[in-house]
Amino acid sequence: MIFDSHAHYDDKQFGEDRNELLSSMGDHGITKIVNVGASLEGNQRMLELVDQYEFLYGAAGIHPSDIQDLTEKSFAWLREQTRRPKVVAVGEIGLDYYWDKEPDVQERQRYWFCRQLQMAREEHLPVIIHSREAAEDTLEIMKKEAAGMSGVIHCFSYSRELAEEYVKMGFYIGIGGVLTFKNARKLKETAAAIPLDRIVIETDCPYLAPEPFRGKRNSSLYLPYVIEALARIRDLSPKEVEAAVYENTLKLYGLK
Ligand code: NI
Fold first, then answer.
1. What is the 39 CA–ligand 1 centroid distance (Å)?
2. Residues pairing with 127 in the sheet
3. How much distance in Å is there from the Cα of 38 to the middle of ligand 1?
4. Are 238 and 231 in contact (CB under 8 A)?
5. Distance from C-alpha of 215 to C-alpha of 248, rounded to nearest angstrom
């Protein structure tokens, strides 16, 4: 059984065959998926999808590159959605300095990151963190605003030392298709070093397809390639890794 901890099936890249693809998941052992919100509109589509598919859960949150969607009014709406039974996390939230270089935009990212962390704490939900080229500021905010909370650092792209720091804080590390790339030395080192019970796997689909599909549209059906890569790195069988990360993801999202 495979649990995709982070997917974006609301994305328009799935417009042609979304139903067909999602209906086939069970036949391939994909038994649970968390569809993660990014833009406000994406969050609305996420809510429709989780109503439609029993095995699909949702995370409600605004991605740092979409914070122009946030006002007090849309933020209040977002909070209401976090109270729906199938919404299991707040995310994805965080900082992305790769796409946004202007200091005032980065300042607004930090503001809404803090607000969404506070909301997650008040609503007793784990968080899904997106952080790109913003390692220092993310850690600083997490230490201040997320102490004692739980969640996942999704698509982890920083150093092993930083991963260990987040593990110490009680967070999970999300690993996806990048693990199968030839040039992913840093991530392989991290995947080998951190405790297995702190790792969850993800697609981030439609992005970041694993080898041999790199550059193509990703889907949960490709997760066995990530499991295989992780098994090789940890010197375990794919079955052992599959079972371990499934259990971890249930714990992360508070599911049975
Ligand atoms: Ni994502």
1. 11
2. 90, 151
3. 7
4. yes
5. 28
- Is-above-0.85 flag for pTM? yes
Interval between CA 208 and ligand 1 midpoint (Å): 10
- CA–centroid distance, residue 115 to ligand 1 (Å): 19
Q: What is the DSSP letter of 134?
A: -
Query: Where are the extended beta strands (E) located within the chain?
Result: 2-7, 30-36, 56-60, 87-96, 127-132, 151-153, 172-175, 199-201
The pLDDT value recorded for residue 105 is 96
Distance 7 CA to ligand 1 centre (A): 6
Structure tokens at 82: 């976090």
Structure tokens at 197: 């019970």
Determine the distance separating the centroid of ligand 1 and the alpha carbon of 161, expressed in angstroms: 23
User: What was the pLDDT predicted at 184?
Assistant: 96
Which residue type is seen at 29?
A: G
Please, what are the averages of pLDDT over each run of 10 residues along the chain (256 residues)? 98 97 98 98 98 98 97 98 98 95 96 98 98 97 97 97 98 98 96 98 98 97 98 98 98 96
Q: Cα–Cα distance between 90 and 79 in angstroms, integer?
A: 9
Output the DSSP codes for 141-198: HHHHH-TT--EEETT--S-HHHHHHHHHTT-EEEE-GGGGSTT-HHHHHHHHHS-GGG
Place of tokens 């509109």: 41
Q: Which residues contact 152 (CB under 8 A, 6 or more apart)?
A: 5, 6, 126, 127, 128, 129, 171, 172, 173, 174, 200, 252
* Region for residue 124 given its phi and psi (left: phi exceeds 0; alpha: psi -120 to 50; beta: otherwise): left
Paired with 202 in beta bridges are: none
Query: Tokens standing for 236?
Result: 């375990």
